[in-house]
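Okay, can you check this protein?
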Amino acid sequence: ELGWISKVYVNRPAVVRHAEQIKKWRTVKGNWQAAWLLKAVTCIDLTTLSGDDTPSNVQRLCFKAKHTIREDLLKALDMHDKGITAAAVCVYPARVSDAVNTLKAAGCNIPVASVAAGFPSGQTPLETKLTEIRLAVEYGAREIDIVISRSLVLTGQWEGLYEEIRLCRAACGEAHMKTILATGELGSLANVYKASMIAMMAG
């Protein structure tokens, strides 16, 4: 039941005030700062999404994902044996096999993520989006980053958005799915909130 979604209101001045306050919060210093930065590295997907990507580009990216921080720096922090790597390597579906094979050959368990569902525009028929997702998983992607159809948000088709995301989630099977909302194209903070809620409800 998505009838409530059309009644959502976002207090923009309050959001702007809170965002300004966040900028003034104290940052962590010293050893804590190093720990936070190391943790941040493990949350990053190293990504190449260029039209001129080749197997060798992807191989270099995989090497960088495994060796994200210089070994001498890790040794200085006594973190050289803690397995600090990037969270994932993210590529287009056509390059998934290259990344999977490279990481496997390196004896590395970093997951391969793939953008899909008509990335970046989302202007692709739903059937094509679902096929692209299934192929990326078949090629070895363990994470799928879908992009929503912004037109569904801008025209208030909330049930349609829910169904699209739900079908994409089903097409992922065992693979983890992340939903890219493209918030800069959604028109308002209320639409961002609505799209976020529907993405979560759809899995």
